[in-house]
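Our working data are protein records whose layout never changes between entries. Getting from the letters to the tokens is the skill we practise here. To make this concrete, we reproduce a full record directly below:
***
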Amino acid sequence: MGNSASGRLDGQIALVTGGAQGIGKAIATSLARDGAHVIIGDLNAQEAESIAAEIVRSGSQSSSHALNVADLGSVKSVIKRVVGEWEKIDILVNNAGITKDGLLLRLAEDAWDQVLSVNLTGAFYCTKAVLPSMVKNRSGRIVSIASIVGAMGNPGQANYAASKGGLIAFTKVVAREYASRGITANAVAPGFIDTAMTQAMPPAARESLIKQIPCGRLGAPEDIAQAVSFLVSKEASYITGQVLHVNGGMLMA
């Protein structure tokens, strides 16, 4: 990764939640490559610091904070420190998410609560916390990572699907409320991505999944990162309230 390969985000401050691994790491790396100073907020503070250091070694700008998006106090504290240091936040990527799967009749109430707390309430906390800075500057980009599951459902994932479907609806409200302030809000809905979760699938199940994808392969984290990079750029200034499906054609909405 070179130093500010495109430069289109030079001078901008970006916060990526859950940015220490998988899709979040790819997003953080892509935004840094485009010139942003990327702040990686993650529950795993050590891993977040490691990824930030990796980005810096590559010639781009990054730092990290321990962040629990489901804890309002943690969110407020981190956003306050970031705005205090940099005087603004230009970009927020709501990427932090968890799964706790189970068929509905066996789905524990705390599994429902935990997934909704991180995936949906966490995005609410973070978005609300960054909005004052964005409103003040009359500029901002908010991108939330939804899921194909939020649009089509998936057996065993009632909690996850509800959280991602809710995130899509939440995104549209933010877009309507703050478009007049120069702030856009969009969602990226990944299909099935080649991450640790899909790599752990039995070979037969993985093959069956790939057969459902017209492009004939699982997505790469970088496929999602590039979609996010576009949505936070100047080129996407007239796009808001949209869901960009990145799924190899598995769902054509």
Remarks:
- The first strand starts at residue 13 and ends at 17.
- Strands lie at 13-17, 37-42, 61-66, 91-94, 140-145, 183-190, 243-246.
